[in-house]
Every structure is written in structure tokens, then in C-alpha cells.
TrEMBL record:
This is protein-serine/threonine phosphatase. It comes from Peterkaempfera bronchialis. Residues 217-431 form the PPM-type phosphatase domain. It holds the Pfam family SpoIIE. SMART domains: GAF, PP2C_SIG. InterPro entries: Bact_Sigma-Reg (IPR052016), GAF (IPR003018), GAF-like_dom_sf (IPR029016), PPM-type-like_dom_sf (IPR036457), PPM-type_phosphatase-like_dom (IPR001932).
Length: 442
């Protein structure tokens, strides 16, 4: 047979080689986008798995190191039924004492290409689990690459082709190793972000008050961090008795969505407690003092807040007195299902001018009535008029007027925060039928 000279074969091979390279570049770009499009690391890795099949292999398995065990988070195959049959329990035996190729890669052995994965295995071992995987997926050539970041192996990608397929060549291995490295970096970044977010959220929760000292007043409080934007904010609430007379209830929002906002929130709440407890002033007076101290002694810039006092005079109904600094108005829900916004006592937000005039509003509240203080995340929706949010709030609160206070808060959160963008804080209290007994009470 006469051979074709290399100089004549090259032009015909060049277009195919160019197309092959272009396909792989597109695959890299597609997978990079998939890894960067979600802060949920496991969801991003599942997307990666789906993009690798059938571009690079007939099946892809994603495993993560989880302490001393291996957690299998994704199995993708051309035939979805096969993938379902092998997904099984998420936790597998750990890699420490196993000679299985997956365990070796997770211990740092680097990419491993297997021409034939069949081997003997002890029942219940990682090798046995892997052999079941290979058998059900009808495995031929196998390539296992680490997901590595900063010299630490966080997991592995296992690529599987059918028995008749070509083995993974050097180019395949180089591409898969690159993908594993990108996946490892994405996984590390997501884990670091989740750790920082959890730390910030726990700090914010720790700065919120313990309300157990007001046993005579039915109280319920909720704090829910943003779902769409994984950040903490400056939402806060508080409730505490004064030495003589009313009980103070407050809610507010320090402008910002970061750890600094959460720290400023704690600082502001402590100032409010000290000013209200020491001065014995009305809500408007306390708000003026808070504005002056905030602007004079702190770096806190803008704050919305409601400060209220609930008092049971010797004779007559309970009285609620409040003032509002640019915050959504409190909601009063009566036992008969009537719900109204308490829009009095309104003035600009804190941080603009400490000389801003502020006034108190008053209303008599009957026993069994529920007063709700809340932050704007409960009612605001992007692109929607705020009036729709207030209408929804009144309607749902009216329907829940007779529900236990904890159910009242939980249901409002569940019904009103689907797809919300912001943190939400709630503080609700139900006016008791009897005034609290104090040492001076007859």
C-alpha cells in the first residue's frame, strides 16, 4: 500500500484538529460559567457533571471528602435510569485505608487512568461500592482526577466511557485535570464564603436580645437572613422593662448588608437600652437622644427605627405609645380580625439631623390585640409599589388574628417572604388581659 506523504495529510487534518480544539475551549468556557453561576458549590458541581456528559464521557461521578468519609453528590449518565440505580446513600467508606483508585486520588495520587476497572473487592468496602458503580454503568476506560485547591484534595471527578470506547489520552487527561482544578477552586471559594456567611449570621443572631425576662407579656420574635443574597444585615429588635412604668419595644434597620452593619446594629441596640432605661423619657425623647448620641459618638450613618412603650395604667385600657424614624409603621391586629397600620408619630430616619422634631403617637389597645413590629424585608418587593406589600400584610395578619403568637409570626414569614431579597426581623406581642404584678402592686 502506498503511503500518503505527511505534507499531503496535514491540510486535511488541520480543520478537524481546529474543530476539536474549539469544542474543548467551548466546553471549558461552559463549565467555567457553570461553576461561577452559583454560590451553592454542590449545585455547581452537579451542573459540571451534566455538562461533561456526553461531551467527554458517557458518565461522570462527583465525590467530595467529608471528614473521614466520602460523600457522593452526583452521578450523571447518558441513561438516567442507570444513574439512579447507583446514586444510593450519599456517604461512602473513607479513603484512608483503601487501595481503590478513587481513594488513592483523594489521598493525593493525582489523575489515574484505568483501562479496565474490574478487580476483586471485599464486601462493604469502598472497592466494592466502586465495582458496583462500574458494573451498573457498564464501565470501560475510567479517568479519576482530583478536585484540588491549595494543595488540598477536596474531592474527585470520575469520568467513565463504555468498554468499546477509546481510552482517555493525554489530551483528555490534561483537560480533565484542568476541569478538576477549576472545580476545586470553585468548591473552596464556596466553602469559604459559606463559612464567613455562617459566622456573620451567628454573630448577628448573638447580638439580638434574649426576651425571656418578660414572662408576663406574650412575645414572639423572628430573624430570617436573606435567601436570594447571602448576606447579613443590620435588622434588629428589642424588648425590655423600665425600672418603673412601661415596657419598651423597638425594631430597626441599620443601613447596610455586611458584617459591619451587624456590628453597628449591636452597638445601636445597646445605646438604645441605656438611654431608655436611664432617662425614663417617652419614645420620641429616647429617639432624639439616640439620634444625637449616634451622630456624635459613632460612625453609624443611617438608621430606621420604631420605639414603642406599652403601659397599663391603674385604671383604663392598655396604652401603646410610639414614635417612628422612617420605618414601616407598626401593625395592630384586633381579636375580631381588623388590622390597621399605626401611621402616627412619623419623622425622618436617624442620622440626618439630630435636631429633627419627633413626636409621640398614642392608641388604646384592648386585651387580645396583637401588635407587630417588622422590617421592610417583610413587605418590599423589587419593582412593586410598597402599597401592595402593606395590603398583603394586613390581609394575612387579619386571617391569623386568633392564631397563637408563634404561629402568627411563622405564618407571616412563610406567606410573605417567598423570593424576598432582604433580611427580615419581626417582633410581635399580644396585649395581656391582666397587668403584670410588681412588688408595689396591691
Amino acid at each position: 500500500m502506498r503511503r500518503t506523504p505527511m505534507s499531503r495529510r496535514a491540510p486535511a487534518a488541520a480543520p478537524d484538529s481546529h474543530g476539536h480544539a474549539s469544542t474543548r475551549l467551548r466546553l471549558l468556557a461552559d463549565i467555567s460559567f457553570a461553576l461561577a453561576s452559583s454560590l451553592d458549590a454542590e449545585e455547581a458541581l452537579r451542573r459540571l457533571s451534566h455538562r461533561l456528559v456526553p461531551q467527554l464521557a458517557d458518565a461522570c461521578v462527583v465525590d467530595l471528602v467529608d471528614g473521614e468519609r466520602i460523600r457522593r453528590i452526583a452521578v450523571t449518565h447518558r441513561d438516567p435510569d442507570r444513574a439512579l440505580r447507583v446514586m444510593g446513600p450519599g456517604l461512602l467508606p473513607g479513603p484512608d485505608d483503601s487501595a481503590d483508585p478513587l481513594a488513592r486520588v483523594l489521598r493525593g495520587a493525582g489523575p489515574l487512568a484505568l483501562a479496565s476497572p474490574a478487580r476483586a473487592a471485599e464486601p462493604g468496602s469502598l472497592e466494592a461500592v466502586q465495582q458496583d458503580l462500574y458494573r451498573i454503568l457498564d464501565a470501560g476506560p475510567v479517568l479519576i482526577v482530583p478536585m484540588r485547591a491549595r494543595r488540598q484534595v477536596l474531592g474527585a471527578l470520575t469520568l467513565i466511557r463504555p468498554p468499546q470506547a477509546e481510552p482517555f489520552d493525554a489530551e483528555d487527561q490534561s483537560l480533565a485535570s484542568d476541569l478538576g482544578h477549576r472545580a476545586g477552586l470553585a468548591l473552596e471559594n464556596a466553602q469559604l464564603y459559606a463559612f464567613q456567611q455562617n459566622t456573620a449570621e451567628q454573630l448577628q443572631r448573638s447580638l439580638l436580645p434574649d426576651l425571656s425576662g418578660l414572662d408576663w407579656l406574650p412575645l414572639a420574635a423572628r430573624y430570617s437572613p436573606a435567601r436570594e443574597r447571602a448576606e447579613v444585615g443590620g435588622d434588629w429588635y428589642d424588648a425590655f422593662p423600665l425600672p418603673v412604668g412601661p415596657t419598651v419595644l423597638a425594631i430597626g434597620d441599620v443601613i447596610g448588608h455586611d458584617l459591619a452593619a451587624a456590628v453597628r446594629m449591636g452597638q445601636l441596640r445597646n445605646m438604645l437600652r441605656a438611654l431608655a432605661y436611664d432617662s425614663g423619657d417617652t419614645p420620641a425623647g429616647v429617639m432624639r437622644r439616640l439620634d444625637r448620641v449616634m451622630q456624635g459618638l459613632t460612625s453609624i450613618e443611617l438608621v430606621t427605627a420604631v420605639i414603642a412603650q406599652l403601659q397599663a395604667p391603674p385604671a383604663g385600657p392598655w396604652t401603646l405609645t410610639w414614635t417612628n424614624a422612617g420605618h414601616p409603621p407598626p401593625l395592630l391586629t384586633l381579636p375580631d380580625g381588623t388590622a390597621q397600620l399605626l401611621e402616627g408619630g412619623h419623622a425622618p430616619i436617624l442620622g440626618l439631623d439630630p435636631a429633627t422634631p419627633r413626636t409621640d403617637a398614642h392608641i388604646a389597645v384592648p386585651p387580645g390585640a396583637t401588635v407587630l413590629l417588622y422590617t421592610d424585608g417583610l413587605i418590599e418587593r423589587p419593582g412593586e409599589d410598597i402599597g401592595h406589600g402593606f395590603t398583603r400584610l394586613r390581609q394575612h395578619a387579619a386571617n391569623l388574628a386568633s392564631a397563637p403568637l408563634s404561629v402568627f409570626c411563622d405564618e407571616l414569614l412563610d406567606r410573605l417572604t417567598t423570593g424576598y431579597q432582604d433580611d427580615v426581623a419581626l417582633l410581635a406581642f399580644r396585649v395581656p388581659h391582666r397587668a403584670p404584678v410588681t412588688p408595689d402592686s396591691p
